[in-house]
Design brief:
Helices cover about 25% and strands about 30% of the residues. The chain is an alpha/beta fold. The strands form 2 sheets. The chain has a 6-stranded mixed β-sheet with strand order 4-3-2-5-6-7. Bound molecules: 1-O-pyrophosphono-5-O-phosphono-alpha-D-ribofuranose (PRP).
Length: about 180
């Protein structure tokens, strides 16, 4: 597939994504072998990663989803996490695996993990596709991460700019001319 014209370059190819997602999923599968976790995808960014990740698992899993908005993130007076779509399942006593596309400031996952533990989850582990460690403002780290990346504007494989580019099968770097317009 040719590169989208709004991409400066491809950071992670389909092959690199497939291989690493599989590697991480197999590790999770091993670690949860005797469990029956609830795998929670945080929409929309995680959609493609989530679909690829769960298809590498052989343990029994149940699927659920949340939509959250991190308004206030990155500002001094950061508000609380706003939940736009909540879980369908009661998570009391459950082992929960959160699947996210990217951890940036850490606002979303720090708040989400605290919330799910407050609701009585037995454990909450975090799986991320991308980790921008240098952007971290909240004390949270993924338990499993596929790729550490620099602070670049990344799109594709679920990630958007202004709701565009999520369907690209690779992770690309957006041309600054697109968002500086
Ligand atoms: C993105 C991403 C994480 C969050 C990470 O979501 O999916 O949820 O931002 O940033 P943080 O670590 O600074 O909290 P976004 O709000 O862009 O929604 P989306 O998943 O629908 O793209």
């Amino acid at each position: 597939m040719s590169m989208h014209p709004d991409c400066e370059r491809i950071m992670l190819t389909e092959e690199q994504l497939r291989a690493r997602v599989r590697e991480v999923a197999l590790q999770v599968d091993k670690d949860f072998a005797d469990k029956r976790p609830l795998v929670v995808g945080i929409l929309k960014g995680s959609i493609i990663f989530y679909a690829d990740f769960i298809r590498c698992l052989s343990m029994p899993v149940e699927l659920d989803f949340m939509v959250v908005s991190s308004y206030g993130s990155g500002t001094v007076s950061s508000g609380k996490l706003k939940i736009k779509k909540d879980l369908d399942k009661d998570i009391k006593g459950r082992d929960v695996i959160i699947v996210e596309d990217i951890i940036d400031s850490g606002f979303t996952l720090a708040n989400l993990k605290a919330l799910l533990l407050e609701r009585g989850a037995a454990s909450v582990k975090i799986v991320t596709l991308l980790n921008k460690a240098e952007r971290r403002e909240y004390d949270i780290a993924p338990d499993y991460n596929c790729f550490d990346i620099e602070n670049e504007f990344v799109i594709g494989y679920g990630l958007d700019y202004d709701e565009q580019y999520r369907h690209l099968p690779y992770i690309g770097i957006l041309k600054p001319s697109v968002y500086e317009k």
